[in-house]
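Researcher: I've got a protein sequence and the SMILES for zinc ion. Could you write out the 3D structure of the bound complex as structure tokens? I'd like something to compare against our soaking experiments later this week.
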Amino acid sequence: MLEQLKQSVFAANLALVKHGLVLFTWGNVSAIDRDSGLIVIKPSGVAYERMTADDMAVVDTDGKRVEGKLSPSSDTPTHIELYKAFPKIGGVVHTHSTFATAFAQSGRAIACFGTTHADYFRGAIACTRALTKAEMEKDYERNTGLVIAEAFKGGDYAACPAALIKSHAPFVWGKDENEAVHNAVVLEEIAKMAYLTQTLNPKAEPADGHLQDKHYYRKHGANAYYGQK
Ligand SMILES: [Zn+2]
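Model: Sure. Here is the predicted complex with zinc ion in place.
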């Protein structure tokens, strides 16, 4: 079932390696088929070089495995909560990419310092609150998804497709698994740029609001004009 999606999710997982976002078995990509409500996700703890498309796990939104001989990623409940909270997304990526993770570990949002950030993410990339002891002891991975959703209460998850989990690392999403991987690569790059910006000038201010708006809306929304028609 979902053979094409399995191929695509497999390729998207390998793309994380190619782009230098993951080491060993860290990181995972999933995609949801909104018609059936089924999620295809990387299996848990399988080396990327031995992985095949057939190894991808298929689960339902209760986390029950409906196909695949291998257990799904241990982060699956986080992916599921994001698909539930953000109905317009089709793909989710989790990595421990270095610079984005450094911000998460510092408990700091990534401010929008310039156009590279503004082209992709509207406003600062939020860092969630810490999970409580009780939230860690029971349903830790599910609660991780819930704190991300909580950080977006009233916010636009489609306009800012990433969040940093405090003391952990980023989760990134997109309309499908490929866009989510693309956004994860961009997130790491802008985290690096923000780190360097603040190192060069600890008093650096976020870019002016009108510049942020200009760059975001020339690529997104009804009046976008960037790229080919
Ligand atoms: Zn993680």
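Model: The mean pLDDT is 96. Strands lie at 28-33, 38-41, 57-59, 65-67, 91-94, 162-164, 170-174.
Researcher: Great, I'll pass this along to the crystallography team.
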